[in-house]
Amino acid sequence: MPGYLCQAARALLGLSQSDLRELSMVSKKSINDYENAFSDLSEGLALRLRQALEGQGARFVHGDGATGVVTGMARSELDRRSRSPRKNEAPSDRP
What we know:
The protein has helices at about 5-15, 15-25, 30-35, 45-55, 75-80; strands at about 60-65, 65-70. By secondary structure, the chain is an alpha+beta fold. A two-stranded antiparallel ribbon has the order 1-2. A hairpin with a 2-residue loop joins strand 1 (about 60-65) and strand 2.
């Protein structure tokens, strides 16, 4: 799993780097450096990140010239997990 897919999966799941650190037991600096292509991770650390993300609902796909990440969560679950204050407001609270 390349670092950009780790970042994409984390964003889709509404997880911060700190959240992923807690789930995977990989340091936040290592996650940041990996996602921003500053460094590579050992196979063991990359596997821990992948397992943590998959445990939260991410599915990594590869084939037919495409590589990506998807989630099987309903939109309401994704909105609930969002860190965006606007998404966490009730619809009646929005302007």
